[in-house]
Structure formats: C-alpha cells, structure tokens
Design goal:
Largest sheet: 8 strands, antiparallel
Number of helices: 2
Number of domains: 1
Order of helices and strands: HEEEEHEEEEEEEE
CATH architecture: Alpha-Beta Complex
Shape: globular
CATH superfamily: endopeptidase domain like (from Nostoc punctiforme)
Helix content: 10-25%
Radius of gyration: 18 Å
Strand content: 25-35%
C-alpha cells in the first residue's frame, strides 16, 4: 500500500511539473517574445512565449494603462484603444475581471464602459466584441480575445498569449435556438461590445 501511495504521489508531482512546464516554458523555437505573429485591422498580436511571461507594462503616451506586455488583456485593450478609440474607466484587472456576473444580459458594464452580453445571450456576437473566458484550476486569471469573424454557425477569435502551443486564431461553434445565441465553449462567460 505504501508503494502505491508513493507511486501515486510521484505521478501527481510529475503531472504538476508537466503542467508548469507548458505554462512557463517556451517550446516554440524560432519565435521571440514581442515578435508580431498576426494582426487585426492593423493592430498587432505579439508572441509571448510561456503564458506567465511578463516583460513590463504597456501604456499610451499619456499614461493610459493597456496592460502587461504581451498578455491577452494588453492586446484587447490596445485593440479597443487603437481601432475603436475606446478607453475603459477601470484600466486594470485580470482577464476574468472584464465580465461582471452582476450585470444582466444586454446591460452596461460601467467599469469597462461597454455593453455586456452573457453566454448564452439574446444578442448574436459581432466582429470586434471582446470575448471573456472564465479562469480554470490551471489559469485562475481567465482569458480574453476579440471576435474577428462571425458566420451563421461559428465565430473566429483572435487572441494574444494563448500559450506557447496555442494559435492566435481559433473558431468555436455558434448556436441559435429559442431566441438565444450561444458560443460552444463552456469557459466563455460572455462578450462585451462598444455600441
């Protein structure tokens, strides 16, 4: 019994170490942190290597906080600032903090000065919506992305810092039934929109 417990403990330690390695180790040779890998409407998406990599804070010339380079939050806030001329009243917070669970579907999210929609929602996602993912046991901060394309049955997102093995673009199913729209990913809690 003692050997089995030691073996299980060893497997647990190895599993945690492997997850830490994926989160903290850059495994994409040929790419450098800060290298542009994609763009949407002229706003660049930069490679960040490991999810936990931080290389300083990005601010506008007048001091507006865009976020930590080259995290997911920094991209969506830079996109909204550069492409949509939008400043958020609360310019700080983790990705999960963009979605306020106390705000009803289709109501104003005052901290972000955007309209917030839940997943599912009465309103269909649109290009330029800011998509919010809940945190997980391995990433308590959540994730944010921008909707880059919408079709009848799927959406495409563009994102920064999906991890060293992730892609800057992903697609998810989009379902319309009984007057509501839902995106086929249980981690997506909702989306925000500049009206």
């Amino acid at each position: 019994m003692k050997r089995i417990l030691l073996l299980l403990f060893g497997l647990l330690v190895a599993g945690v170490a492997a997850l830490w390695a994926v989160k903290m180790v850059d495994v994409a040779p040929g790419r450098e942190v800060g290298q542009e890998i994609d763009q949407l409407n002229g706003v660049g998406v930069y490679y960040n290597g490991a999810v936990g990599t931080v290389t300083g804070r990005n601010t506008t010339p007048d001091g507006y906080n865009l976020g930590l380079k080259y995290q997911c939050v920094e991209f969506v806030k830079r996109y909204y600032y550069e492409h949509l001329d939008h400043r958020m009243p609360d310019s700080y917070g983790h990705a999960r903090d963009f979605f306020d669970p106390a705000v009803a579907d289709g109501s104003p999210n005052k901290r972000r000065n955007l309209t917030q929609y839940t997943n599912p929602s009465r309103r269909q996602p649109q290009v330029d919506d800011l998509l919010v993912f809940a945190g997980t046991a391995f990433n308590k901060y959540g994730h944010v992305a921008i909707v880059s394309a919408v079709a009848d049955d799927e959406i495409e997102i563009i994102q920064q810092n999906p991890g060293p093995l992730g892609n800057s673009r992903e697609t998810y199913s989009l379902n319309h039934a009984n007057g509501t729209w839902s995106i086929g990913n249980d981690r997506i809690v909702g989306w925000l929109r500049k009206e």
